[in-house]
Design goal:
It holds the Pfam family PAS_4. The chain is an alpha+beta fold. The chain has one domain: PAS domain (Beta-Lactamase, 2-Layer Sandwich), CATH 3.30.450. The chain has three helices and five strands; from the N terminus they run E-E-H-H-H-E-E-E. The longest helix is centred in the middle third of the chain and has 13 residues.
């Protein structure tokens, strides 16, 4: 499944993963904001950007969402492990992608370069 994430808009990072948590799409904004080239991110696990101390919780939530996808508005300031090893928070929105029958197809995350949602669930 391809989601249109092309373009040179570096103000938003768009990351798409399949139901197993493998990155399938990575736009120019993700390259600019997180520091990983698309060629180094696509095909890798989301562990690439999930901070180590949050991985267990991340995968628990990810697998729950893939097993029972619901339409929710999940916007928060989300920590990302960047290529330089630093953990930075970005205003992000997480969406489960599903078909008309409710079968999960993967997940989509969209991050803004600047600003805050005011919601910081991992602090």
């Amino acid at each position: 499944m391809r989601v249109p994430v092309e373009g040179h808009d570096a103000t938003h990072a768009v990351v798409v993963a399949d139901t197993g948590g493998t990155i399938t799409q990575w736009n120019a904004g993700a390259e600019a904001m997180f520091g990983y080239a698309a060629a180094d991110a696509v095909g890798r696990s989301l562990d690439l950007i999930v901070p180590r101390h949050l991985r267990e919780a991340h995968w628990r939530g990810f697998h729950r969402a893939m097993a029972d996808p619901k339409v929710r508005d999940l916007a928060a300031d989300l920590p990302v492990r960047c290529a330089d090893g630093e953990i930075r928070s970005f205003a992000g929105r997480l969406l489960v992608l599903s078909d008309g029958l409710g079968t999960a197809l993967g997940a989509l995350a969209v991050y803004a370069r600047a600003g805050s949602t005011g919601v910081r669930p991992f602090d």
